[in-house]
Description:
By secondary structure, the chain is an alpha+beta fold.
Amino acid sequence: MVNQKSGTAGTILGLVSALWLGLFLSPEPGWAQGLDYARYYSFNGQFLRDALFAGEFPWWNPYVALGRPFATDLQTAVFYPGTWLLLGAGTTWGTALNLWLHLWLSGWGMAGLARAWGLQKGTAIAVGIAWIIGVPMSVRILIGQIHYVDSLAWLPLVFWSVSSWCKHATPRATVAVVAVSGLQFLAGHPQVFWFTHLAVAGWLVLVTRNRLSVLLRWAGLMVITALLTASVWLPFASMIAASSRGWGGAHLMEIGALRPTDWLALVLPSRDGFLADTENQLHLSIPVLLLGGVGLRLAWNAGGPWRGLLGVMLGAGLLASAWPGATDVAKLAIPGFGSFRMPARLGVLVVFGALLVAGYAWENRTRISLASLGCWMGALVLVVLLWSLGDVSTRWPHLVWTLGFSGITLGVWSVRARVGERLLAAGIAVLMIGETSRHWTVLRDWYVIPQEFPAETFLPGLVQELRAEQGHPAPPRINLSARWARENFGMIAGYSTFNGYTSLYDQRVWRTIHAQADLPVPQMLTSFPDVRIWERSPFIFDGMSLAFGFDPETGRMALAPNPSPRAFARSESGATVGSVQIESFALNRVALTADLPTPATVILGEAYADGWKVEANGSSENALIVDDWKRAVALPAGQHKIVWTYRPPHGRTGLALAGLGVVILGGLSRRLQASGPAPG
């Protein structure tokens, strides 16, 4: 990587990150009320802190979706260093510190990449600032997608490290590629990791001489990265296969895919339902796109990394577009496309490339002809004019800014080129900040949730009462819609639910919830069950031990008159026999006692997943699944002490592979130290 001797760039980018987070993203309502943070990440962070401070490691989460893995769900980012800030600083302040560090990291990486590709220090810093305050980062912070921001922050550093490795494949450069790639993977958003490295592979093919050799060497580094992170992705892969997204398919890919009109988001922020989906937010502002557009030809002629970057932008644009047949081809050719809505995110690569090309164009502005500037500016004006015809009353600010700025800049540039350049630079700074902040203000109405939910004030006290009444330590199971209490609120309030806000439901639980409610299984919006469930009776779910719920007919909360037992024994004839008691209930361990007059199946009303093991009287037994989702074990007549314990599947295999990765990386580094080859 480029060694920036002076700390000036880092200081400037750190201050900009702090100011941007403080001035535009923190005022109420801000990122702390953003949809995903308020409903998902805040609970994950608090749950992790509470568990660790209580002396338990949260491999399993018994409070959401009838129970599901926690630590090995990559999207909780338990093994990512940025998440650990929450342990010392608390959930909110720790997250704020994490966001600031990643904004700074992303800007510093963008500036470093620009410097590595030949831009001057001032231009590189400007490109870094533009990336920090741009929509791809800002909108994700606003709606609370913390791990998306964390992962996206590594995008420039991945390119920077690979670019440096291409020039000099030293041990340091090799380790940097593996380390940066591994950290991006652990940051908690696999889609960003997939599209980043898809882009890197395409870039390497376009910019290196010995393409096959370089690509194979880079693929080897990715194998080492996969080995080092195997203890996380092996269990996570098991989760995906068993989840509501396990089947993949074009229906998931189509969410947020960019249609022709959606590309207007490169020029215009969303307005009144236009481009309301956050997946399509690409806004760069007109001045930046102006520079990027006129710089396309210059960058192409320059060759090297710039030509490769333009190729990545073109490929990303094609894959992100919702063209008939394109999604099916990509689903078959590229792993992950069918399950992770990747086309919706590939537009970020277009923004990433456009900012760098704009920086290159600014450095070479003396080579920009007035004719090319005028043609590109005219095209942008025409786009805004056509878009404004339908509703000039609400879109006139865009029209005025575009016509006014374009006309004045073009006129001044034709008379005094140097003054025109300064005007363009000032326009980039003022308009990008103004447009992005206004864009954020508009989206705030869409993606910020209310700060209070009626049931959350009394639920903790009610849970304590229910625990005392039910006579066993398992968290009481409650049925409330998200209008009354957030889906994951039970993680910190101490109750469990059949629903939750999570992208990976177990398929068995997912099917059961909708089948018992007589509703079709959703195949696109899989983060929470069909909302029509809450139009039914609060206790329609057989065998879920629901103790409390909201009755839509009376509009009041209701206690279940006779909740089904959380643990019981069933004979071969189907009759309930004997007695079963829950003796202890921890995150990763549940202990039962059973007194059986005849051979029977002892059933625990908690979701089964690979990794749960069962012992009876100290001996291992075969774990069973009954009623499509419950844990069970078949036992003979008599008294039994049953212990269920959870450890992630493939855990030992993952650790062994990680050790192998360390050995291989160490051996490769020693070999490179001796020979010092460059890949191309």
